Amino acid sequence: MINPIDSEEKILKRIRRTRILRRIIKVFFMSVIVVWGIVSLFPMYWMFVTSFTYIGPSFTMRDIKWFPNPPTLQNYKDFMQLEAPWWIEKRPWQRWFLNSLLVALIPTLSNLIFDSMAGYSLAKLRFPGRNTLFWLIIITMMIPEFVPLIPLYKMMYDFNWINTYWALLFPGFAGVGGVFLFKQSIQTLPSSLIDAARIDGASEFKIFWKIVLPLSKPILALMGIVGFVGGWNSFFWPYLVTNSSEMFTIQVGLTGMMGAGAFGIPPGVEAYGEIFAGAVLAAIPVIVIFFAFQKYFVKGITVGAFKG
Amino acid sequence: MAEIKLENITKVFKVQRRRRTESVVAVDGMNLKIEDGEFLVLLGPSGCGKTTTLRIIAGLETPTEGRVFIGGKDVTEYPARERGIAMVFQDYALYPHMSVFENMSFALKNLKFPKDEIKKRVTETARMLGIENLLDRMPKELSGGQRQRVALGRAIVRKPQAYLFDEPLSNLDARLRIQMRAELKELHMKLGTTAVYVTHDQIEAMTLGDRIVVMRNGKIQQVGKPEEIYHRPANLFVANFIGTPPMCFFRVKVVDENGIKFLFKNGDTMTAPSKFWEKLSKYLEDEIIVGVRPEDIKPVDRNDGALNVFISSSEFVGTKILVNFKIGEERGIMEVEPEKANLIMVGKSLPITFNVEKLHLFDPETQKNIGVD
After folding, report:
1. Which of A196, A201, A211 sits opposite B89 (nearest CB)?
2. What is the ipTM, given to two decimal places?
């Protein structure tokens, strides 16, 4: 606050002081962010470096290298078993990637379809029991994700779906979180647009397809990215419902390679080099997708926060 | 082109308020016939049910009771898209992800028109509205007035049976509003299609409407030509709602002193017009409300039958001076020509007279206009 009685000199002094204080605060916050960034990026860096470093059969923490010296592609060749002799058990790593791709893509697509439809009807259509239904959806969002695992497993078992694509894909076909997000986002569209389309002779489905969906692009992109990354990285559910290596996803496969005495790795050998090479390969799609759609990602997060 | 008929239309909304469901009557037993080619304006304050009525005609709301007829056909159960009507919305409701051309052709595409016909109609309409150079633009690249034209174009291009307008000019600035108002009027004369227009702006209603329907609390107060509504308001509400500055109202006592006279609150009397004497005879010694428009009040040199009023303030508005005055505790406003400005002295009293031929008399109980049958 500026006191009119203060001399000009005093006022200038105070302005200078607040300026300095502001700069100190800024520097402090910046350094917090930088430290946090380093801490969270370090495992990625380590994985990346190690995948290009030769690692002997006995590997300890002391063997961590900051730079691969000399860099080698041996770990990648080993992971793909390019030079493995015929008598070593082959690991179906291509199949793992394919399975991961299916687990990432199919439920995401079906989520986009079903969640957007449900979100639209909850946001813009009037029907009896709409509010009750919406609250039921909110309530199911409060249940921790691990609670339904056992009943869900039992269901898969009773359906005879264990170790099939049905078990891997079907439970993720629609999600309440997506319904909620779509509802909130579609609610911000002016109802007059839908009225106008109705008067312009569009059927209810056409209104959804031609008006509502194109205007929901940011939220579609957000849901698509989150769904794909989540599916690609999912571990626990695929681990639970698969038991033959052809049905593994890449995440489950990589875990299986750890000290397993399986997948072509002798018992007692820690094949960290190969595992890290596989982990780098598994991380690439996520990184590519994130950077490619970063614009939509940030836009999607702010959907509903701002209008227009 | 078609006439529109509303029969006993009632719309009740269920509203959730503090965990209780309340019923709100938006439209209450409305009967209305809109002639073929007529420009009809629904006028009233916000919440009077005018927009609900329009949405019922459009098929965007289903009436709780009553029937809707368009072109003699009962369309009450028809969805909006099968009623052959076009609507222009207050916020224009242009599809933001479609170009102007796509916006205007959306309805025709839904009606499965051939491509070249669509193109022909859209360009024709765009030329008529002066927006042919905007066809490739997106709505967000247009000004308010241009958006309004596109919204109009989207309605016109379909050659509908009737146009419905939901306060289409209220988002425009004052100057553009006056311009678009005139354009709308010309357009209606050119197209000759039935139009129903909702507004709360009485000037819009007066200038555009062939007939005006004044609504309040879901009920029709009066239906009539603009002059009729202005000069013969059916009740206090209509009289008060129409006209700027508004009509002045004074409570007077009806007395018989050598003919029927009005006794004002300040003790002055004024002879009632003789055409009302018969009707006023049953109000003798009772109070009634006298209404008079500001342009029918004139300052005079002191003579018989003049009222003495206290001038509280005056406002110069260019072509005239608006003078606020008081009779006892009741306030009034009159319009004075600038030449007579020397008569107006704020804080002083002034003799005035009413144009007795244009007085409106209202029953304080029923609020009905006594002079109108």
Report:
1. A196
2. 0.85
